[in-house]
Model the fold of this input.
Amino acid sequence: MVFAVVLLVTALPYTTAYQRDDGTADAPGASGRALSRDQPRRTGDDTLVTPSRRATRLQSLINQSIASRARTIMVPRDVYEFNSANCAIVNATGLTIDGQGSSFIFAPTAGLRLQGCCNTTLRNFTIDIVPKAFTQGTVHFVAPPIRPVQPLLNQSAEIQVDLDAGYPLLSPIEDWIHAKVIFWDAQTLNLVPEQGGVRFIASINNRTNATRAVSPLSARRRVTVGIRPHVTNASKWWPVVGQRVSFPRVVGLGAVYQIGGRGGVVFEDINIYGSGNDAIHEYFGVGGTRYLRTSATRRPPGPLPGYFKGTLSGQILTAAQDPLQSANMGGLVTAETMRGPVVENSEYAYMGDDFMWVHTKLAVVWRINATTIRIVDPGSASRISNGGWGSSFKTFDLVSIRKTGTYFVRSVTVVTNPHDVAAAANVWNEMAARGVKPIAAVSSSWSLVDVIVEPDWVDGSPQTQPTDLVQIDSTEIVGAQVRGSWFHDGFCNGLRWKSSDSTIVNNRIEVNNGASLPFVLGVPCPRLLCGPLDAYNTTVESNIFVGGCVAVSPVVIRNVTNLVVRNNTHDADPLSSCDQSSPETLETCWG
Done:
């Protein structure tokens, strides 16, 4: 049956109506919107339309609507199984997609993909991953530590876990070697506090090779797992029989992935119940995306919506025990956008990494002469041009983060092809040899570029040295805002914030891991090549911070000028638990 697009031109902005399989379209309501249908629709030969076919037709409708510049798509409330295919929204302008309570189901490697969109709004639907990209179970046995001394470093723990029904087996083993291991309270189902840092699946007691790190013991889905504690595990923490445990690994790009946005993108009333990576990624472009009443949390217990009846995804979700976590990694990651995200009245919870990470990718100085600085650029291909690099950049010492120079760009020349993986690998190896060891894997987008600059030195030689970090002025994120939102049960840090002209107001930010921090502002991560290395004009007001590494300082604010911090509280020490080391910031943290 041909899937048509019906344009209702009686009122503007006009609406795209979703055609039923009997050839008729839902009529517009009084508001001009197309009405929805909850029941499965039948084709002419009286066979049920499958959720996967429904998803294919929705994708076709989206493509046609973008091409015809339709204003609105009203999606009938139903389940749409995209499976391993993405739901792609490319170069949409002025389009609103209203899911009306629908569920979009993806495989772990797929998701909602936006590229080059402008003034586009997505609302009123949920996203879930089926099957889950993590597995979970209950701790059945814990071997005692070999050397019960403090700190418990450089030794592995051996545990036996009964995996829950409906979740993946740890097979093939090689795919799970670097999965995280996260423990949950069996009664509250919240994260176990003071877990002592990130831990990963590893070889058992360092006596077996990696391919035998996980071994099945019986048909009861019981497995023996060797786990490697993190270096921060200095509190003698050890797993306990009966605790719940999950094993998330990185799969795909995330449930939502936006690249090269042209501004004006809005997500509202959207729930993300799972992701193989961070729940939301946004890279490059104008940025300023608004996330209103959105959530990235685990699917709540209880019956599924009625439209799941008879669907494959419904059967899988019903057969599985309630999930312990949502995204395998973090919540919202924004990098290399001109403006930061705006998050309001939202919830991010039960995830395997940071709740939010707003940052800019840094480059590394490679070689210098009188007028040219050769730079390793891990950013996008669009940055390898005069336009992408803008007119100026700063350099900072890798160790002290002291600024070593400000340079004005004359021209940029690409030395290595940005898609040359072998060249990128060679660059990474040389960086490691020089002491710059980014955790991120080698990317084919890494390039060597030569930047001819206007010198700002007096004696004829630049102050910048090889391995100095490069902060490109045109890619510094500004304008990020978080208001009235709740962040809880995250395995790593809370908000890692590197945006100027920003506000963080009226939020509750809770971390359970004793090695984590609820809030980190202006602190660079050189090993991850993320910045910026300085920030300005930021307000942190009326927030509640809970948990974190009190010994270090649960809230850390550094390298920020024109900072306002007031009326915040922390459950440990509301007056002195903020590390505010920059002399340019306020003398007291809470004010």
